[in-house]
Design a protein that fits this description.
Layout lengths: L1 H16 L1 H17 L5 H12 L1 H30 L1 H15 L3 H10 L5 H9 L5 H33 L3 H4 L3
Length: 174
């Protein structure tokens, strides 16, 4: 456990000394991470809240997950169209006709449902013929509750971390 707190102290000292650099590197790392739709996003969202606080952590998380998902969806859509065009057209027509009547509601609910990985969500979005604006709005609304929760709990973890560093002399004085 001491090693764990040693590494957290090391990261936090680097954050305090080089805030802008650390912020930019972390933000770019999250965009790349979410562009690849790798598992482990909740841990990184918690760490954003831990390192940067609730408000900045929320902004980092929501912007990086939107940009990363956008890159993944439109890159995978391009790849699928290029190599599996007939399959893409067949599935795309079925999915688009299914959500045609109330597309915003279905897209938001699909993002809100927890349990299906980001990779699967983004692949399904790649098969839909929706505008970029509709993608960004539905993803923002759908991701927001989860991102708020993880950023909030990350910021509360920082409070627990601060308690670990308190000494008795900080509490009781002469």
């Amino acid at each position: 456990m001491e090693n764990f707190f040693f590494y957290i102290n090391l990261i936090y000292e680097n954050l305090e000394n080089n805030y802008i650099t650390f912020f930019c590197v972390y933000f770019l790392f999250l965009i790349i991470f979410f562009s690849l739709s790798l598992p482990g996003g909740p841990i990184l969202m918690l760490s954003s809240g831990f390192l940067f606080g609730f408000y900045i952590g929320f902004l980092i998380n929501i912007i990086s997950i939107l940009i990363g998902s956008y890159f993944f969806v439109y890159f995978s859509k391009y790849i699928i169209k290029k190599f599996f065009n007939k399959f893409y057209i067949k599935i795309s027509i079925k999915f688009t006709n299914f959500i045609k009547s109330s597309s915003y509601e279905y897209l938001i609910i699909f993002r809100l449902i927890q349990g299906n990985p980001l990779f699967i969500q983004n692949i399904v979005y790649a098969f839909l013929n929706i505008s970029k604006f509709k993608f960004l709005i539905s993803s923002f609304i759908g991701f927001s509750p989860v991102v708020i929760i993880f950023s909030y709990f990350g910021s509360k973890l920082f409070k627990i971390y601060e308690i670990q560093n308190i000494k008795l002399s900080d509490i009781i004085s002469k």
